[in-house]
Write a sequence for this structure.
């Protein structure tokens, strides 16, 4: 039997039972569920409607989000805003959060470079996401990227194998799609345009399922 990891005890003891989103957000800064809280500037919780039919779950905060304390305000957030706009979805009408609430990074001089959360970080932070989704009760959850899909579905998936379909798993309807940051990494304009169109199509699928 594996011994408990003292650096990653899990967030459960900091998550209030049966709380609404505001109460959860107020409790989150005290969380010491994993070691990521220490180097981060602050916890980054959520934004958007606490009664949304559509919830979008990303990976973790980036550098800009860590400094400002709000999810999806950096370059990937602007790309997501563009995709939501093209899909005809108002950002204020959706609930936006991340699977992991603290920024994981490597320091390189003056720069902080994104580092993908480990499975242990996803597990440690999962009680927050579970509580959020229980409070919001969205009709559809959009998992933006593989890390978010792992958190929402409870198992690994290859985004390309399942993206754009409405999955009935883990007691919820889930649509898996690419994280908007993956579009930013594409250098070719044609590829970037196609990737954005695919994200827009997936968001439309999710929105349609949430409205049905």
């Amino acid at each position: 039997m594996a011994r408990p990891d003292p650096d990653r005890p899990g967030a459960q003891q900091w998550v209030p039972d049966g709380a609404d989103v505001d109460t959860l957000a107020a409790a989150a800064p005290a969380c010491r569920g994993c070691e990521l809280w220490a180097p981060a500037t602050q916890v980054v919780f959520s934004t958007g409607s606490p009664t949304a039919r559509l919830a979008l779950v990303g990976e973790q905060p980036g550098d800009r989000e860590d400094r400002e304390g709000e999810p999806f305000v950096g370059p990937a957030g602007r790309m997501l805003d563009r995709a939501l706009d093209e899909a005809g979805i108002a950002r204020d009408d959706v609930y936006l959060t991340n699977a992991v609430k603290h920024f994981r990074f490597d320091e390189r001089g003056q720069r902080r470079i994104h580092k993908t959360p480990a499975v242990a970080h996803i597990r440690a932070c999962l009680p927050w996401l579970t509580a959020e989704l229980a409070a919001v009760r969205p009709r559809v959850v959009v998992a933006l990227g593989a890390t978010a899909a792992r958190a929402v579905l409870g198992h690994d998936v290859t985004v390309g194998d399942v993206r754009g379909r409405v999955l009935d798993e883990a007691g919820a309807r889930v649509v898996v799609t690419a994280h908007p940051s993956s579009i930013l990494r594409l250098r070719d304009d044609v590829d970037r345009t196609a990737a954005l169109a695919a994200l827009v199509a997936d968001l439309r699928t999710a929105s349609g399922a949430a409205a049905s």
In short: Strands lie at 46-48, 54-58, 94-98, 105-108, 111-114, 140-144, 166-169, 172-177. The chain has eight helices and eight strands.
